[in-house]
Design brief:
alpha+beta, Jelly Rolls, globular, binds 2-oxoglutaric acid
Length: about 270
Amino acid sequence: MISKELVETYQQDGVACLRDVISKKWLALASEGINQNLKNPGRFFRDHTPAGSSSRYVFEYWTWPQTPQFEQVIMNSPVGEIAGTLMRANHVHMVMDNWFMREAGARNGAPWHHDEPYFDFEGTLCIVWIPLERAPVEDGLTFIRGSHRWGQLYVAPEFSENVPFNCEGSAYQTVPDIDAHPEDYEFLSWDVDVGDCLVFDFRTLHCVTNKQKSAQETQRRVTFRFGADDTVFSPRGKWTEETSAYLMEFGQKPESPIDCKLMPKVWGRTLTWR
Ligand SMILES: O=C(O)CCC(=O)C(=O)O
């Protein structure tokens, strides 16, 4: 299903677009899962709607233990295999499910960021991003080609007002003002259809393309984060305290490979003996 060329593109660019790989059955389950979570939001529901806006920008993560629809997608759909193949992993562990909903008229969207500083993981990780409605470039994501290989971590901006979290330590720089100097970067973006997905590295810088304009249509997307063979849980600091504690409640040991009830192995390469 995934060509060697596409794997190489993913490795070099830090992002790849896969066409027609997620069947309607999985999309319908994800849609049901979001509806269930909206009716009964869980501990990690977050509302990033700015004050005064009537159109919401909301998301929720780590819903799958309470949402059987997401559990089915994670365990039985090809998402784990897609992630493992592109990361050239021998096995992958589920790290996190996270859906986003940006209602028509919403005036904000994900600012420039990469995912790694928000969480406590090091090593090789990726995100499989699946739109439930067609996402034309304007409503989809834009990436900076190759930015996962810059060897730099950026402080995590908070989604509603683009205010940075207090990421302590010299490892973190402020995200550069990318929009003010577009000539310095090479951007990648796609019209993503229902059934397609984008897969990107945990360190690839990206944002919602039209983050400063109102969304034309309500857009829902589900994302799944996966870790490869070398992914380690390493608590980062005060700003990730809540999620670190949550993972440890599930039995995850600090400074150890990811492996606990919340982050099970979901895919492995079949070894063939010669
Ligand atoms: O789809 C979105 O609205 C934002 C997704 C995103 O930025 C992420 O998964 O890191």
